[in-house]
Amino acid sequence: MARKEMNLTGKLKQYFGFDKFKGDQEAIIRNLLDGNDTFVLMPTGGGKSLCYQLPSLIMDGMAIVISPLIALMKNQVDVINGISEEEGVAHYLNSSLNKASIDHVKADILCGKTKLLYVAPESLTKEEYVSFLKGVKISFYAIDEAHCISEWGHDFRPEYRRIRPLINEIGIAPVIALTATATDKVRTDIKKNLGIADAKEFKSSFNRPNLYYEVRAKTQDIDKQIIKFIRQHQGKSGIVYCLSRKTVEELAAVLCANDIKAAPYHAGLDSAKRSQTQDAFLMERIDVIVATIAFGMGIDKPDVRFVIHYDIPKSLEGYYQETGRAGRDGGEGLCITFYSNNDLRKLEKFMEGKPVAEQDIGRQLLQETAAYAESSVCRRKMLLHYFGETYEKANCGNCDNCLHPKTKIEGMNALLIVLCAIAAIKENFRTDYVIDFVTGRPTDDIVSHKHNELEEFGAGEDEDPHIWNPVIRQALIAGYLKKDVENYGLLKLTASGKKFIKSPQSFMIVEDKDFSEEDESDRGEARTVALDPALYAMLKDLRKTTAEKLGVPPYVVFQDVSLEQMATMYPVNLAELQNIQGVGAGKAKRYGEPFCRLIADHCKENDIERPEELRVRTVAKKSIQKVKIIQAIDRQIALDDIATAEGIDFDDLLNEVEAIVYSGTKLNIDYFLDDVLDEEHVEDIYSYFSESDTDDLETAMQELGDDYSETEIRLVRIKFLSEMAN
Ligand code: ADP
Ligand code: MG
């Protein structure tokens, strides 16, 4: 064919100014030019867009590109129009356009100017567009981010399922599907659903040798670890992914409080704010973006040096995409993930509200992530295996597991037990079931299949119960087992698995990491352990003299817990002082100065090195409810009405209000006291507190209890503390 001779490199240079194709680009483009369906699997940043952009400019007719990312369409269209001599070579249709713009696009298409039309899947389904496009000659269809077709991908979009019927309606033409993530399962789904079973597949290696993978136990001091890590990589660009918007906001605030140039990014922020943040990151006015997964789709910053996962990702597909944003230029890319069993349980719990089928998929994807995190096998090997690629090297030299390898143990016997068990239950069950079976747990499921009556049931009772997960995972990687693609997750024997049963051989494995212990270990109240008794005594003295001078009881100045913490954390300025429990801005300002001076002097005199980690500043994390309560009180809404509005009972409201006041915020509840208490009564209780040397409620009840109710006492105590202590 004449086309074969076409000088594509010349076209590449002519249109895009690039000198040569990247990876498989040329072969992909030729395949499409020849009129064949094409399937492209290329990691993020590999250059997928060009695989449809260039042929669209060469071929007769107009190409339709289906892409879920409305925000990126404009960008891509601008790029194409920027390199074209004529206007209108590329256009897009999506919900953001008004009537006039749509008419303009249609006119350009009808006069044949337009070679490339980007459409959002939900727009394509509109009858109006379908009938319009029927009259247009289509060169081919490109389905970008094709994993959106599959429920097993990390970003399922139901509208993507309707693409094939729409193509049939608009007019048949070759299809090119492109994605950066696809397990066997997702790949099968895509081909089936798009009806391109015979498509030629172009799969580039997914290995990113420059990315370093590490999984750390997520402990209470995660914020400190992250701050420390970022400080060690000062001035470099990085992304921290969190699962919830709330965590994003909080962590970004903590980072900022620690002089790190960071900003939050999530779908709840308005689009102006988001693009502003994105620009600031690209221009390096901001070093670190704290984001939900909404950030990063299509962002092309080549020198992101680290990607941190604050929470366990929901799927390895997502994880791989997100880590893939590090080190695109081939330079350093550190990928650190924090993992805890607790997070896993939380996510599983979270899924319970969803439809059963979706839950099942979600749970299995989550299990894959957990397997990845807990395993001591080379991370690279596991990831590539997950994406259907074999990594041959024994040690990749660039992940935590390869840098600190565990000693291997013999797993031959355990593997034999597993393989025989899987054969016995007819290769029809998933990992959890197999483990229950070999360990001899007669679950309802097992009993209903009468599998507890089989000889192989409980064959592994004598082995360490922790061995089974690693054995099965490593047998999958070694190719003794495979997971079924049709019925995802069912464990099947491979040919070498069957051979192993006949003649077993050594199978060296590494045990999993145990994340459950680390989970609990840091939970204890370590706070007062390191209390400095000399300092504590001096702080108490200072409190006493301060209180006497001001004519208030000592606890009004600072509570005991606050002094204890000061004697542990050594805050030396007002900002640090506000990190101390029970000290808010007001209190710090009012009483803090001499305390900070005392602590600073004490540190100097005794050569006390304040622990590095304690210099991490936190931000006041007022819960949304607390903020609402404060606002309501400012608007003088009756306290019982606030409780009703918040859906809590009155006592709980008082607890909240007390917590607010104790942490140093001034509240004026006089308007409410005027309504519910006599003035003399207020005065009576108030004077009790000014004279008493404790704010303890029990003691107050004993003293005043005959005349006043607990609620009355608490209300006046709030007034008192607010006025005197804050
Ligand atoms: P993907 O969609 O696979 O993540 P893109 O299509 O966005 O990747 O391309 C990533 C980057 O690579 C873009 O900046 C693009 O301009 C660049 N690129 C693509 N093909 C080539 C090429 N042949 N030579 C140089 N740069 C290229
Ligand atoms: Mg792309």
Automatic annotation (TrEMBL):
Enzyme kind, highest EC tier: isomerase
Cofactor(s), names only, from the UniProt record: Zn(2+); Mg(2+)
Catalytic activity: Couples ATP hydrolysis with the unwinding of duplex DNA by translocating in the 3'-5' direction
Segments forming domain Helicase ATP-binding: 29-200
GO molecular function: 3'-5' DNA helicase activity; ATP binding; DNA binding; four-way junction helicase activity; hydrolase activity; metal ion binding
Highest taxon of source: Bacteria
Ranges of residues in domain HRDC: 529-609
Protein name, UniProt field: DNA helicase RecQ
